[in-house]
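EI: anyone free to look at a 507-residue chain?
SC: sure, send it
EI:
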Amino acid sequence: MKILTAAQTSQADQATMQAQGIRSDELMERAAAAFCEWLLARLAADPARPLHIFCGPGNNGGDGLAIARRLYQEGFRARVWLLPASKYSADFQLNRQRLPPELVCQALNPKRLPTLAPNALVLDALFGTGLSRPLSGTAADVVQHLNSSGACVVAVDIPSGLFANSPQPPDSAVTRARYTVSFELPKLAFLLPQNAGWVGEWLVLPIGLDPTFIHNLPVDNFFVDADFLAGRLPARSKFSHKGTFGHALLLAGSRGKIGAAVLASKACLRAGVGLLTVGVPAVGYGIVQTAVPEAMALTDPATDFVTELPDLKPYAAVGIGPGLGQEDATREVLRQLLRKATVPLVLDADALNLLGTNPDLLGLLPPDSLLTPHPKEFERLVGQPARDDYHRLEQLRAFAQQYRCYCVLKGAYTALATPDGTLYFNSTGNPGMATGGSGDVLTGVLLALRADKRLSPLDAALLGLYAHGRAGDLAARETGQAGLVAGDLADFIGRALQELTASTPLL
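SC: here you go
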């Protein structure tokens, strides 16, 4: 799904009203209805829980008033607090007029803000995506009061004070929500680590924005879920054979790190590669042959690290990096690979570290190469730290454009940058995947999919990222997040890909 800017979200609202012949208050009513349906399922377990709704003077406050009215109709007596202002939006005023007389609204007194019990539920409808400057004065005081109350705060659309698609100025007042309930499409701010303490757990509820307008709206950020990937992974035909799905070469491992080669190999096989050859130093031969009998082992003349590049003719894709080490001879293997390769490359771990310490190698990257750095590895690639998460995304976008590559920035909501500068954020995965070897598994999955000539470079990358995270989610159900290890991911890759495989439609 697309990730819109705040301005584009406003445009989508206007286009929906025009296309569907509805007023702004009717669209607001849809949002209130969707929010209340979600909230009532949680309030049902504790109808006596203290409930407070804080409303600002704009349309976000109008949402809060519409929610208050609907909750009142369901039998919940929320206390409604209004932020004093010299001007209120038309939809705010309309929804205030619609409140039943028994539902009293109280103006917030900055000198005597309401006491909030620790078990209270607070709805933050102070400010929405239209905010263009940091909160100040009474608004900032109210937000700080909510944050220090200990109450459970639910943000309506976006936490008040948080910008939807740009960084916060230092020390800005922003509501710290436990839940953020947004509408129709996610916001870029939800996907970045620096905003996690404000956004909390977030979800998006549909409200029927015009799909044609959204489809035609140009964006450079996407959020990737199963629906987005539907139909991209073709089913296997009855007469497929191992050659159909490609022969991959994996160059990996060094003394003490052969496990990385094993994990990547297992994942590559589980991701459906037709044939896999693993190039390892001599110390890894017996380990690979024993741990991954389905793969062919190609032994380097050196005992402890890779020193020679094999003949590349048999291979449909080459992966390099997991546990590889950074010896001078290994660096030269990477240099030769970058110069000679005519097939897709997947670079991870020590291959990326070698690129970072030898910037001249970056200029040798073949077009459409796929790089998979974590944030520190990416910092080494670009040669400078990012000011914040937004700046890092711009660095990522620029890097992929400059080197005509696909670059993955690993983490929660892993981001993929493409050669045209588009960013795709992955929706799957969990904190249990923050464990050694998880990246090696990802390399193996991506290598298998890049060896499959049925897939475009973009589809291979998107499917691999999603399946890797989904495997982690499936594994965590059995092991728990704390008990998750990288080998568990490889075991569930096949099931994750099966969920994405296109089915043959019935007549």
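EI: The chain has two domains: 6-219, 229-500.
SC: 👍
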